[in-house]
Write a structure and sequence with these properties.
The structure is a single chain. The chain is of the alpha+beta class. It has 2 domains: 134 residues, Fructose-1,6-Bisphosphatase, subunit A, domain 1 (Fructose-1,6-Bisphosphatase, Chain A, domain 1), CATH 3.30.540.10; 110 residues, D-Maltodextrin-Binding Protein, domain 2 (3-Layer(aba) Sandwich). It contains 8 helices and 15 strands. It has an 8-stranded mixed beta sheet, with helices on both faces. The chain is globular, with a radius of gyration of 17 Å. It starts with a helix and ends with a helix. The protein binds L-MYO-inositol-1-phosphate. The site of L-MYO-inositol-1-phosphate has 14 residues, from strand 5.
């Protein structure tokens, strides 16, 4: 199902409204529960997901829904993939590096990606084949000077620490590449598209963290691994995205690691 311009406008306005409500909820005080080591959920994560699901079920009744907190509701050939608050730890601590991430997938192909970071007032939107924008301005990735590469990284307990440390050593010692880890994969992917960083790697990311940011990167001209391979939609996958020159520079090392 194609998303026309007025539906897209209504949807992005709704995401902005819900994101601003999440700011109010934080300012009013949050209850936070532990899902696993260093993996938390607040009542705002649950509220945001339910609010988005209610809106999408009304506007797109035939579509399915996959959310980080509420899980899967099957649909016909399309599905909305939602991370209500990506960067929950940052959000609960009052840091500005968090976002809402909404992706629309038809027959395993990402058709629409919307990422909104309320504290930064950054609204990223991409539709397949129609480019990517940040607050309405077109995005196009640019290759960095080889000595000025900054790579975004993410890690979790879903992946051996040693492999992460080995990668860090390779980047710093062998490649003289700087890195940043800000704890919200969806927003870091968007900052590849907007040129703040020149690539992003995480050994395992869930589809709700990855899909919207991935389309925004693709539509801005970045290269990536095939995240949807091996049932990536439901199992998650490794994610490796970069500008063309950074991609080709690190691909040999990462392919040795099976990426
Ligand atoms: C987080 C991701 C981050 C990853 C964390 C977690 P959450 O998402 O954005 O990249 O390293 O393990 O998955 O839990 O804040 O939605």
């Amino acid at each position: 199902m194609h998303i026309d311009a007025s539906s897209l406008q209504k949807l992005s306005d709704t995401i902005v409204e819900i994101g601003q409500q999440a700011q109010v909820m934080r300012d009013n005080g949050l209850s936070v529960t532990t899902k696993a080591d260093q993996d938390f959920v607040s009542q705002a994560d649950v509220w945001v997901e339910k609010a988005l699901q209610a809106y999408l079920a009304m506007e797109f009744p035939d579509s399915g829904f996959l959310g980080e907190e509420g899980g899967l509701k099957e649909g016909k050939d399309s599905i909305w993939v939602i991370d209500p608050i990506d960067g929950t730890t940052n959000y609960t601590l009052g840091m500005d590096y968090w976002c809402l991430s909404v992706a629309y997938v038809v027959n395993d192909v990402i058709q629409l990606g919307i990422v909104y970071a309320p504290d930064r007032d950054e609204l990223f939107i991409a539709q397949k084949g129609q480019g990517a924008t940040l607050n309405g301005k077109a995005l196009k990735v640019v290759d960095p000077l080889p000595e000025r590469v900054v790579l975004g990284l993410g890690r979790s307990n879903r992946y051996p620490l040693n492999d992460y440390l080995t990668l860090l050593e390779h980047l710093i010692v062998e490649e003289n590449i700087e890195y940043r880890r800000f704890g919200a994969g969806a927003l870091m992917l968007c900052h590849v598209a907007s040129g703040q960083i020149h690539g992003y790697f995480e050994a395992h990311l869930n589809s709700w963290d990855a899909l919207a940011g991935l389309l925004i990167c693709h539509e801005a001209g970045a290269l990536s691994n095939d995240f949807m391979a091996n049932n990536g939609l439901y199992q998650g996958n490794s994610i490796w995205v970069a500008t063309r020159s950074v991609w080709h520079r690190l691909a040999p090392y990462l392919s040795k690691k099976g990426i």
